[in-house]
Specification:
By secondary structure, the protein is mainly alpha-helical. 54% of the residues lie in helices and 9% in strands.
Length: 147
């Protein structure tokens, strides 16, 4: 997988970000993460579809505006969200890293997991928009291991 895939993922997400909603406060963002991680779709459905371990708790760290990117630490599990990047797509993107454990950071497995998260927590319209943006940007997406 090349850096072109990552650039294409970011380009596709950028088209979607304004439409999926922003969090007014960091506390609201953290609450959303807690809701996602407690949901059966996270604990059961993602684990089944992607034969993956889904963490039961995810720490959320606020990064300063001077940070250049949000990030996920798969080993801990922790997501770091840059101040000002408080939108659902950024949060779901980082959560997808925790589940996908794709050998390529933004590889096909990651993209498939991200599409599931977007469908479940942003809605079918957002899922369709991101799916179409992935096609336009030539993003390679894996199908779930089990469906």
């Amino acid at each position: 997988m090349t850096s072109d895939q990552a650039a294409s993922v970011y380009a596709a997400e950028h088209l979607l970000s304004p439409t999926v909603g922003r969090f007014a406060t960091f506390a609201a963002l953290k609450s959303f993460v807690s809701q996602v991680v407690a949901d059966d779709r996270w604990t059961d459905e993602l684990a089944r579809r992607w034969v993956a371990l889904t963490p039961h708790e995810v720490a959320v760290v606020r990064r300063s505006r001077s940070a250049t990117f949000s990030a996920a630490e798969e080993q801990r599990p922790v997501i770091h969200i840059v101040d000002g990047q408080w939108d659902r797509i950024t949060v779901l993107h980082e959560l997808a890293h925790l589940v996908a454990r794709d050998p390529w950071s933004h590889g096909p497995r990651f993209c498939g997991v991200e599409l599931d998260l977007v469908r479940w927590w942003c809605g079918i319209d957002a899922w369709a928009e991101l799916s179409a943006a992935f096609v336009v940007n030539q993003v390679v997406v894996a199908a779930p291991t089990r469906d």
